[in-house]
Write a structure and sequence with these properties.
The complex is a heterodimer.
Chain A lengths: L2 H4 L26 H9 L4 E7 L2 E6 L4 H10 L7 E9 L9 E9 L4 E9 L4 E3 L8 H12 L2 E3 L52
Parallel strand pairs in A: 2-5, 6-7
Antiparallel strand pairs in A: 1-2, 3-4, 4-5
Chain B lengths: L24 E6 L11 E7 L2 E8 L7 H6 L7 H7 L4 H16 L5 H30 L4 H20 L21 H23 L3 H7 L7 H6 L5 H4 L7 H4 L20 H25 L18 H6 L1 H12 L7 E8 L4 E8 L7 E5 L1 H5 L3 H5 L6 H9 L3 H5 L1
Antiparallel strand pairs in B: 1-2, 2-3, 4-5, 5-6
The chains are: A alpha/beta, B mainly alpha.
């Protein structure tokens, strides 16, 4: 070991518990300042807050999603000003209702903290769009609409983005959409479509 | 602060961006087979003379449904798919995915593997920036620079080839570390590259940095103000070129980046030229990181986490012990089942923040796998930059975002 290597600052030994990469604030929901602020300001919209792998997730009511995120952006102590991601999860195999979860990842550049906001939304319900407060939400919400069929209110330009404009086979990331699509395609050089192989190890569709 | 949500706030267009009423508009279709769109990007431009009044990027020509495929593959089977999202910096994509799965499982790779992951990630960053610089300058008119850039990139690809046998889609990382040994010549190859590369970078800067054509094509073009950059969710050099200090390696250190000494370059004007300077300085800092890592990395030690249900057992013990042979069989046939939960893990990719969001239901396949690619988000700022600009500058603006359409469309 060289001299330079000996002078390196000590780092805690690598253990199975040291996977905490990225700072998400206190792991206890009671101590987390963003959870406290949202619960104080929106007592009727706050549903719950859970922590997994040090990541804090706040679940709020669907109709107040934009207000909560605007509040977290403008609050002088929170300042979650970077909208990292907007996506959705089809929860149809994990619970009865509501069907989807809208997942919003936030990051505070001044405080260096991440936060996740979730809101449940059922099939046919709409979600207030985040475009008026974060321009970044534009394409992300278009992608959620494209892949899940969730409609965003007040979105300036809600149309398909990754799939073709005239795509009529539904929304692919829903769990009832088969991996190879609904239609049968005959590949060039073949007379009939390839058989659909159902593996025993694969999760039932 | 009270916000009225009854009316959506319109995007404000500054005075000089607004156009006069007496305009004759023409719609120009650019792409998807245009050489300057870096792939299959299609941009619909509405022109008034040579001034752009509106710009509508159409993407999705390379959509392969990577997220849907991830939900039907086991965790370890998805690693090769990450190469195909951003094929210019494949090791960085591997890194982001395996870190997300490791965080979900609650494991961490051995120290030696973490150092080599940093080295490979930084080499991928330099390779990606070289492709960006070569094609970006080629679009604007500097033809010879691309040959210089690909000269140095070849050395990086040789290092990748020596390590894993592949040059482009490397598939080099595995959940829990590396599955392949480090060849004996590899540290020397990396050291040689660190010595050779600064001279090559000097060549690029000699050609470009004081070139009057390059300056007039890039200075003051495609300006993004800091608050607009944050609102558009930009990350990477696009955000730092506007002077906002956000680098995932510094702000949320992963791997061993908290041990290393490097700086984050920031721009001040937010134009194409500042983003060029930021990326050039990032390459210099990457060389600094690689040199520190290659000095500090242990010469022997495990590259793969042992005795974990989530990792593949090493080859030598599979052939000698019954327990590892059984574990290997189960791992290959059935995969592993991480705990139920959800994680979001992001790394600093060469283009910005690359995030993987995984929802696990306790089965061997992810319930939901979301890939947050940086250039998909960064490309949203193109209409903002292009509105009111000249037609010839659109090529410079597409180039400065640094897009790879495989990563935008997924």
């Amino acid at each position: 070991m060289s001299e330079e290597q000996a002078q390196l600052p000590a780092r805690p030994a690598l253990t199975a518990e040291s996977w905490a990469t990225g700072y998400w604030g206190p792991t206890d929901p009671e101590l987390h300042p963003a959870v406290y602020a949202v619960r104080e300001r929106f007592p009727d919209a706050f549903v719950d807050a859970i922590s997994f792998r040090d990541e804090m997730t706040i679940r709020v009511e669907r109709a107040r999603l934009r207000e909560v995120i605007a509040f977290l952006r403008d609050h002088p102590d929170q300042r979650y000003n970077l909208l990292t991601d907007v996506t959705a999860v089809d929860m149809v195999r994990l619970r009865d209702a509501p069907r989807f979860d809208i997942v919003v990842q936030l990051y505070s550049i001044p405080n260096r903290v991440r936060l996740r906001i979730k809101a449940g939304v059922d099939d046919g319900e709409t979600v207030p769009s985040l475009v008026p407060i974060h321009a970044a939400a534009n394409w992300m919400e278009r992608e959620v609409y494209d892949m899940f069929g969730i409609v965003f209110e007040d979105h300036p330009d809600l149309r398909r983005i990754l799939l073709a404009d005239d795509w009529d086979e539904g929304h692919p990331l829903r769990k009832d959409y088969p991996l190879r699509g609904f239609r049968e395609y005959v590949q060039p050089g073949f007379t009939k479509p390839a058989p659909r192989i159902r593996s025993r190890l694969r999760r039932p569709q | 602060m009270v916000i009225d949500f009854s009316q959506p706030t319109p995007v404000e267009i500054s005075e000089e961006r607004q156009l006069t009423a007496s305009r004759r508009e023409m719609v120009l279709n650019m792409g998807p087979q245009h050489p300057s769109t870096h792939g299959v990007l299609r941009v619909l431009l509405t022109l008034d003379g040579e001034v752009i009044t509106s710009c509508d990027p159409n993407i999705g020509y390379l959509h392969r449904g990577v997220e849907k495929l991830g939900e039907s593959h086991r965790y370890s089977q998805f690693v090769p798919w990450t190469d195909r999202t951003d094929y210019v910096a494949a090791p960085s994509n591997n890194l982001g995915y395996v870190l997300a799965v490791e965080k979900l499982c609650g494991i961490e790779a051995p120290e030696r593997a973490q150092y080599w992951r940093i080295i490979m990630g930084e080499l991928a960053r330099i390779a990606s920036h070289l492709v960006w610089l070569g094609t970006h300058a080629l679009d604007i008119g500097a033809l010879s620079i691309s040959l210089y850039c690909f000269r140095e990139r070849e050395l990086i690809l040789d290092i990748f080839e020596k390590f894993c046998g592949a040059r482009l889609t490397t598939n080099m990382m595995e959940i829990g570390g590396f599955s392949r040994p480090i060849p004996d010549e590899l540290p020397e190859m990396v050291r040689t590259f660190c010595q050779v590369f600064p001279q090559g970078q000097q060549d690029y800067e000699d050609i470009l940095s004081k070139n009057p054509i390059w300056l007039s094509r890039t200075r003051g073009v495609g300006v993004i103000e800091p608050d607009v950059a944050i609102s558009y969710g930009l990350t990477g050099a696009c955000l730092r070129g506007s002077g906002v200090n956000y680098d995932v390696r510094k702000a949320q250190p992963y791997l061993l980046y908290d041990r290393l000494d490097f700086e984050v370059p920031l721009g001040s004007h937010g134009d194409v030229f500042d983003r060029y300077l930021v990326r050039m300085e990032e390459m210099r800092q990457s060389i600094k990181i690689i040199e520190q890592c290659i000095d500090q990395v242990p010469t022997d030690g495990d590259l793969m986490l042992r005795n974990s249900t989530y990792t593949i057992p090493p080859h030598d013990t599979v052939l000698t012990t019954a327990e590892d042979m059984q574990r290997h069989f189960i791992w290959v046939i059935k995969g592993f089942s991480p705990p139920k939960g959800e994680v979001y893990m992001s790394i600093e990719h060469s283009k910005g923040e690359l995030g993987y969001y995984i929802v696990s239901d306790g089965s061997p396949m992810p319930y939901r796998l979301r890939v947050r690619t940086p250039d998909f988000v960064n490309l949203q700022s193109l209409p903002y930059m292009a509105q009111g600009a000249m037609l010839a500058d659109v090529v410079a603006m597409i180039g400065t975002i640094d897009i790879v359409l495989g990563s935008v469309d997924r």
